[in-house]
Amino acid sequence: MLQQVLSYQIADSIDIRMFKSAFKADLYFNDTDELFYIIDERQYIYVFKYGVVCFLNYDAIKISEFLRLISSYCRNKFDQSLEEEFKIQTNSGKNKIGFNSIEIIGEDIEVLRLIMLNVSQSVALDYYHEQTTKMMEETNYHTQILETKGRLDISGINLKKIHRANARIKKPHC
C-alpha cells in the first residue's frame, strides 16, 4: 500500500505541553519534545517542539484544518512554511530506500513513526540551512563593506538583530 508523509516547518517552536492538554486524540507516544497521535486507521500526526508538524495519509483539507488549529500554540509562526514529502510503500517484497521514498516489508507503527521523525528532522534541517545561508550572505556583505571602508555601515540596533538571529540558529531544538 502506498502511503504519503507530509512534513511542515510552520514556526520556530510549538508549545506541545499546552497543545497536548487541549488536543484530545489517541496519543500513542510523547515526551518533552514530541507528540505522536493515531487519528484513524493508517492516519497519524506527529508534532514536534521545534515547530514541525508531520502527517501520514492526510489530504490537503484536513492538513489545513489541523495547521489552523495548532497555530495558536506556535511561537514565531511562519508566513510560508517549508514542507517535505515522502512516499512509503508498505508490504513490499524487500526493504529498499530511494530518493524521497522507502519500501518496507511490513507496516509496523514504530517503523512508520521513525520514518515520520526522519522526514520531520529533514524539513527542520532544510529550514536551518536556509537561515544559515541567509546569515552567511548578510555577514559576507558587511565584511566586504568593512574591508573596503574600514568601518561598518550598519546601526547598532541592526547589528544586535543579526547577533540575536545568529544565536537562534546556533541553538536548534531538534
What layout of secondary structure does this protein have?
Blueprint: E1 2-14, H1 16-22, E2 26-30, E3 34-40, E4 43-48, E5 52-56, H2 60-70, E6 74-89, E7 96-98, E8 101-103, H3 109-149, H4 156-170
Parallel strand pairs: 6-8
Antiparallel strand pairs: 1-5, 1-6, 2-3, 3-4, 4-5, 7-8
Helix pairs in contact: 3-4
Offer a few descriptive terms.
alpha+beta; 8 strands; eight-stranded mixed sheet; 174 residues; 4 helices
Number of domains as seen in the coordinates: 1
Shape: elongated
What is the residue-mean pLDDT, rounded to a whole number?
Answer: 89
- The number of E-state strands comes to 8
Quote the distance from N terminus to C terminus.
Answer: 30 Å
- Summing up helix and strand content along with how strands pair, one would put the structural category as alpha+beta
Residue stretches low in confidence (pLDDT < 50, at least 5 long) are none
Cα gyration radius (Å): 20 Å
Q: Count every helix, treating DSSP H or I runs of 4 or more residues as helices.
A: 4
Instruction: Give the biggest beta sheet.
Output: 8 strands, mixed
Q: What proportion of the residues is helical, as a percent range?
A: 40-55%
The fraction of residues assigned to DSSP E strands is 25-35%
Order of helices and strands: EHEEEEHEEEHH
